[in-house]
Amino acid sequence: MRIVTFVKYVPDAAGDRSFESDNTVDRSVDGLLSELDEYAVEAALKIAEDEDDAEVIAVTVGPDDAVDAVRKALQMGADSGVHVLDDALEASCALGTAKVLAAAVKKVEEEEGPVDLVITGLASTDGQMSVVPVQVAELLGRPAATQASALEVSGGTAKIRRDGDTASQHIEVTLPALVSVTDQINEPRYPSFKGIMAAKKKPLEEYELSELGVDAGEVGAAGATTEVVELTERPPRTAGEIVTDEGEGGNQLIEWLASKKLV
Amino acid sequence: MSEVLVLVDHVDGDVRKSTLEMLTFAKRLGEPTAVFVGDAAQGEAAASTLGEYGAEKVLVASDPAYSEFLVAPQAELLANLIETRQPAGVLVPATADGREIAARAAVRTGSGIITDASDIAEGFVATQSVFAGSYTVSGRVTKGTPIVAVKPNSVSPEAAAGAGAVETVDFAPSDAAKTARVVSVEEKPQSGRPQLNEAAIVVSGGRGTAGDFAPVEALADALGAAVGASRAAVDAGWYPHANQVGQTGKTVSPQLYVAAGISGAIQHRAGMQTSKNIVAINKDDEAPIFELADYGVVGDLFQVLPQATEAVNARK
Ligand SMILES: Cc1cc2nc3c(=O)[nH]c(=O)nc-3n(C[C@H](O)[C@H](O)[C@H](O)COP(=O)(O)OP(=O)(O)OC[C@H]3O[C@@H](n4cnc5c(N)ncnc54)[C@H](O)[C@@H]3O)c2cc1C
Ligand SMILES: Nc1ncnc2c1ncn2[C@@H]1O[C@H](COP(=O)(O)O)[C@@H](O)[C@H]1O
Hints:
The complex is a heterodimer of chains A (263) and B (316).
Chain A: E1 2-6, E2 9-11, E3 31-33, H1 35-49, E4 55-61, H2 67-76, E5 80-84, H3 94-112, E6 117-120, H4 132-140, E7 144-154, E8 157-163, E9 167-174, E10 177-181, H5 193-199, E11 204-207, H6 209-212, H7 220-223, E12 226-233, E13 241-244, H8 249-259
Parallel strand pairs in A: 1-4, 1-6, 4-5, 5-11, 6-10, 7-10
Antiparallel strand pairs in A: 2-3, 7-8, 8-9
Helix pairs in contact in A: 2-5, 3-4
Chain B: E1 3-7, E2 10-11, E3 14-15, H1 17-29, E4 31-37, H2 40-52, E5 57-61, H3 65-68, H4 72-85, E6 89-93, H5 96-109, E7 113-117, E8 119-121, E9 125-130, E10 135-141, E11 147-150, E12 165-168, E13 181-187, E14 201-205, H6 214-223, E15 226-229, H7 231-235, E16 256-260, H8 266-269, E17 277-282, E18 295-298, H9 301-315
Parallel strand pairs in B: 1-4, 1-6, 4-5, 5-12, 6-11, 7-11, 14-15, 14-16, 16-17, 17-18
Antiparallel strand pairs in B: 2-3, 8-9, 9-10
């Protein structure tokens, strides 16, 4: 069983996230593996533990620092990593990124052999679109079982549970397939000291677009299918009136709501 | 006038408010055509409501594949409608299914997609809020047909007379799209309260409830509100995940958001920061939630909420 997990490097949500003058995300700030992709890595490792000869390959597309996302996955236990790095990638839209990720999966297949399962996170914590996984599946022509809050792989099929507002669906796909997972699926492990040391020796390939057979015109600013028209920083919410409850807090609250015509 | 396709969000034929909101946007941008995927009789029944909110045409697509398989057949349908009808743009609901249908149709038609739009202006210039609500971005699709996933509660639905003329769509999804089979569906018990992301008021509880949501629910019911929960409360098993507000739960922007016993972590803020009015009740006067509260009460939620509930009921 060969499993690829997508791991995205994103600006730290706890820090000051902002934009560059060209309206692209400022990636000079501290970043890390998108927390939601940790669940994908964990899901892949769990499946691999139950299989003989299983292999987990972490793939990222992004600038120099993005390799940190792959390193974190290797520390958690992934076997090898792939970093797609190319100046032409800057300012890619979702579709551009999906094309590169799909090409990276094919490259892994050329180099290593068939990929049975691609596991991704629910959404990247910066873009928050939840579109790249199905776009990759569409480009690869593979089934996708998305937003899994439970996943079971056996006998060449993947079964997932997908929780919606009014119902939960149980979905089955035949491998090779793509699965995206939510943060309900597991509890991602922390890298152990041993894992951190071992990660340093694990293979990590770096590819340029030309090596993946992707035309630079299809990605980056040149290939982008969307553009930013205007960007404004929202004035921070200013703290309003704060009262301390001395026995009348609930009544005071409702008086305030009434003054705003909210009750 | 150019056609704008609106993918209808419905539960067993009951058109959700988000659909009426999309029709309201579509009417500003061109001539709305509703695309109803589901049971043919339900589609015909829904047509009158859709017409009342401006839909000139209601395209009804009823292949069994749409419910037997996850989104790919619907994406194929939408891509086919885009290619054959060449609409000015397409609006879909920003739900799990909606965004995936849009994303796949975008690949098939070489189009750009914008998700979580809270407003759409001429030329399909869509407004989104990003980075946990700290930035507002307006963007445009530059290739193919603009596809925009619209956030619920973004506009008040405006009635507008449309013919609501039903047309049956003859489209058979390919076998290639029938790969993710829905083998079973478990309905979830419904609370009878408003839908979280459609509600005008949301009352949420966090770890501070210590597992007792009764005071949160009582205030919600007095206000006619939906109930939300922080992830800490959901992870503890105190409230269903469907009610989680935040980055990995629902994004809500109601008229009023009440956070009780919630500290205000960045991931929680991401789901409620764009609410019109925010009220916080927390024992800790240094809880970060007070930084964004329009009105805050430093106190014990088990004292403050019941008193507030009584005060609301007394006003009725
Ligand atoms: C990838 C990722 C995704 C996440 N997604 C989400 C998400 O979607 N939604 C979300 O909410 N969180 C999310 N989180 C978790 C988030 O970081 C916080 O851990 C969570 O929001 C904390 O919930 P809380 O405020 O209820 O609990 P706490 O932070 O523990 O706060 C409890 C508060 O209750 C107060 N309190 C205690 N007792 C009382 C009382 N009797 N009366 C009044 N106040 C009282 C305390 O003073 C405290 O401020 C995510 C985290 C990660 C890593
Ligand atoms: N640049 C990237 N590198 C690796 N994985 C990515 C990248 N962009 C998106 N993904 C994957 O796709 C998922 C959804 O991303 P998005 O559609 O941007 O919300 C993420 O959780 C990742 O698993």
